[in-house]
Design goal:
disordered N terminus
């Protein structure tokens, strides 16, 4: 926080900003009983806002010459629909998958966009209100910089892949695929058993690897971006503390502007990549090996 940052060392400032507002203190690296309240609330509010905006666009759409808002939404819808058609050839599935992909893209973009706000803007407000209400003085406002959020999204994609694997191929067809792909099978019972075990193991590794990498990619990029903004914010802090603060302030402004302009591309690209990977994985669930 800007007001508090002057009393903290750079290391303490960054560590403080990397702590979530949680239901309890984390005592181990893996603790599934911990809920990051800030990520849940911010992502839920942004999700509700995204659904409202898309609903508003659909409600106000006309057959005549569209306004700027409708035109922008139509371009976005057309882009997502084109990508869905290229990957998922089942028209019935696209009726659910394409709108879902659109929602995911806009939702993740808006969650990423929270990184564009000044680092201390919302946390400083919480610093004044949170402790007064008995809550810890911690708050992070970028849900996609939280691994639990991004892995939650990727696990949701995994569950949809499992659903479509069973729906399209049937439980028998999918089970057969699990033990025959990618290395095939053999007429020899012993070799068939061994290949079945290897194939099943490879399929499980593939599902886990795709899910983990799907969530980790988004988390890693957004966490790094958030950290860079914190480092840039420290330049502003040094500018207010040092006699030669003018140079630090100029550096703060230049670095902040350049990184913000670059980060607009990053947050858009990360949302697009997550959406495209989700479509590709769902498309693979429709295809037989």
């Amino acid at each position: 926080m800007a007001t508090e940052g002057s009393a903290l060392t750079p290391g303490e400032y960054i560590r403080h900003h990397l702590v979530h507002l949680s239901n309890k203190k984390q005592e181990s690296i893996v603790d599934f009983s911990i809920i990051n309240i800030d990520s849940v609330i911010v992502s839920s509010l942004i999700g509700a806002l995204v659904c409202f905006v898309l609903w508003l666009a659909a409600r106000k759409s006309t057959a005549g010459v569209p306004g700027r808002f409708q035109a922008a939404v139509e371009m976005l819808v057309e882009m997502v629909d084109t990508q869905a058609k290229a990957v998922i050839h089942n028209a019935h599935s696209r009726k659910l998958v394409a709108p879902l992909a659109l929602t995911v893209f806009v939702w993740i973009f808006m969650m990423n966009f929270m990184d564009m706000l000044p680092v201390d803007l919302i946390p400083s407000i919480w610093h004044a209100a949170g402790p007064a209400m008995g809550y810890p003085d911690y708050l992070r406002v970028v849900p996609t910089a939280d691994l639990s959020t991004t892995l939650g999204l990727s696990v949701s994609v995994l569950l949809m892949c499992l659903f479509y694997n069973i729906k399209i191929k049937g439980i028998g067809g999918w089970t057969h695929e699990l033990v025959t792909a990618p290395f095939g099978t053999s007429k020899n019972p012993v070799w068939a058993l061994l290949l079945g075990l290897v194939n099943f193991l490879m399929q499980m590794i593939e599902f886990v690897a795709k899910t983990v990498s799907h969530g980790m990619r988004l988390f890693g990029n957004m966490f790094a971006g958030e950290l860079v903004f914190m480092l840039i914010a420290l330049l502003g802090g040094f500018a207010s503390l040092s006699l030669g603060g003018g140079l630090f302030f100029v550096g703060h402004v230049i670095a902040g502007t350049v990184w913000t302009l670059f980060h607009i591309l990053v947050i858009t690209l990360q949302a697009f990549i997550f959406m495209m990977l989700a479509l590709i994985y769902l498309g693979q669930a429709h295809d037989a090996h």
